[in-house]
Q: What sequence folds into this?
């Protein structure tokens, strides 16, 4: 029986990167950021020197385009520092039946039929337990042919939503 054992540990920088990725992959967040930048670009043109300087537009545009990423950084930092499980060394064991997740302070077994989705990008594989919660697996932690075996295991479950690269 094919089995993969993967040991990983998310650094603070990993957690920040994945948080930004997950937030800014949404079209609504991208559109809000563009909207904020457009407002900032309009501020110099909206001042006709006869009325007050448009401070509200300046602050609103700055908050949407610059403030939100800064706030996201501090919220992510607080979450990382306050939840010790995020920074634990975690051992994942994958086989065709289930996923065994063992941290320094927890242990759980997940069956593939209860997994919501599996997605992949350039740096990570994300195992979604629901629409909001995912286990993050840095691709750098897969050895040799393990990533392909992992994809084969996931692809063997036709009921599972997956967006894995070929």
A:
């Amino acid at each position: 029986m094919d089995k993969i054992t993967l040991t990983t540990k998310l650094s603070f920088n990993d957690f920040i990167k994945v948080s930004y990725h997950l937030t800014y992959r949404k079209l609504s967040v991208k559109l809000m950021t563009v909207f904020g930048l457009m407002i900032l670009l309009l501020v110099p043109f909206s001042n006709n020197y006869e009325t007050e300087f448009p401070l509200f537009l300046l602050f609103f545009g700055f908050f949407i385009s610059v403030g939100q990423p800064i706030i996201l950084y501090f919220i992510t930092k607080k979450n990382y520092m306050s939840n010790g499980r995020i920074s634990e060394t975690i051992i994942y064991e994958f086989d065709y039946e289930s996923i065994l997740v063992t941290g320094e302070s927890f242990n759980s077994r997940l069956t593939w039929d209860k997994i919501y989705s599996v997605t992949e990008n350039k740096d990570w594989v994300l195992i979604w337990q629901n629409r909001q919660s995912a286990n993050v697996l840095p691709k750098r932690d897969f050895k040799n042919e393990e990533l392909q075996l992992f994809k084969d295991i996931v692809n063997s479950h036709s009921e599972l939503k997956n967006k894995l690269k070929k």
